[in-house]
Amino acid sequence: MRGVPSDKFVASMDLVQRCSSRTKLQGVTRLMACHRLRLDVEPLVPQPTSARTFSESRRIRLSEMDAEGRLRLDSIARYLQDVAVDDVDETGWGAPEHLWVLRSIRIEVLASSVDDREVELTTWCSGSATVAAGRRMSLVGDRGGRVELDSVWIHLGPDARPARIEGFGVYAESAADRAISTRLELPAPPSDARRRPWETRASDIDLFGHVNNAVYWQGVEGRLRDRGIDPRAPLVARLDYRHAVDLGEVVELAEFSEGGGYGVAFVSGDVLKAVALVQRT
């Protein structure tokens, strides 16, 4: 299992899009109205004691902090992407034979990294499916910060098409018999959700012409305080990636409330690109 190399194969949801139908807002809204969003998600898989883990230390840079010195959600998402790449490059599960596309991510901020200046990142495989795998990451700051992440990645072959995971080498032990799901669970916004423009920049775009997966969190970050959520407090943030956003594409943020939290959808026309949900804990 692994993350997508940020310098060659970043999370490009158009590849997954080949294997799924386009998501229309009206249809999804009706579908989500038929069942209640499962807000009580599965417990996070603990760090293994004997199976493979991969660790790196990072110094928190000025560009990764907000005005109060807090490590932002988009910076944390980039850490996951980078450490995942380094891990699979070391084990032979990286490009060009194996490509990975981020499907969903869950960030649990237990203690915000406000005073930290260095963090220890540890990642491991949390489960597998036929064409996907789970990746956990634990972030521990040198001054008390603590963040836990879980994520699901679609496995692609060198032809950039979903490919079965045959055996799993060094990741098999930590994956164990845990089955992960690629199902997207966050709801579409209601039809009357307030919308605001979200402009993409050239610096947001990856090698394949798509908005990098970490950039979506910038759209979330910019609205948290206005929606009454203190980003320094403990929280759970989730994001489902559905379709890629291209440079120049007209995108709006559709905001809504869900389960006592702040929901925001990235919408282009009637196509739902991604959905995020942030809740206090």
Give a structural overview.
This protein has 281 residues and is α+β, with helices and mostly antiparallel strands. It has a single domain (13-280), classed as Thiol Ester Dehydrase, Chain A (Roll), CATH 3.10.129.10. 15% of the residues lie in helices and 32% in strands. The protein is built from five helices and ten strands. It has a ten-stranded antiparallel β-sheet with strand order 1-3-4-5-2-7-10-9-8-6. Strand 9 and strand 10 form a beta hairpin. The longest helix is centred in the first third of the chain and has 19 residues, at 73-91. The chain is globular.
Fraction of residues in H or I helices: 10-25%
Portion of residues in beta strands equals: 25-35%
The CATH superfamily is Hotdog Thioesterase
Sequence of strands across the biggest β-sheet: 1-3-4-5-2-7-10-9-8-6
Oligomer: single chain
CATH class: Alpha Beta
Query: What order do the SSEs take from the amino end to the carboxyl end, as H and E?
Result: HHEHEEEEHEHEEEE
Please outline the major beta sheet.
10 strands, antiparallel
Strand segment count: 10
Question: What is the residue-averaged pLDDT?
Answer: 87
> What's the CATH architecture name?
Roll
By CATH, the topology is Thiol Ester Dehydrase, Chain A
Number of helices: 5
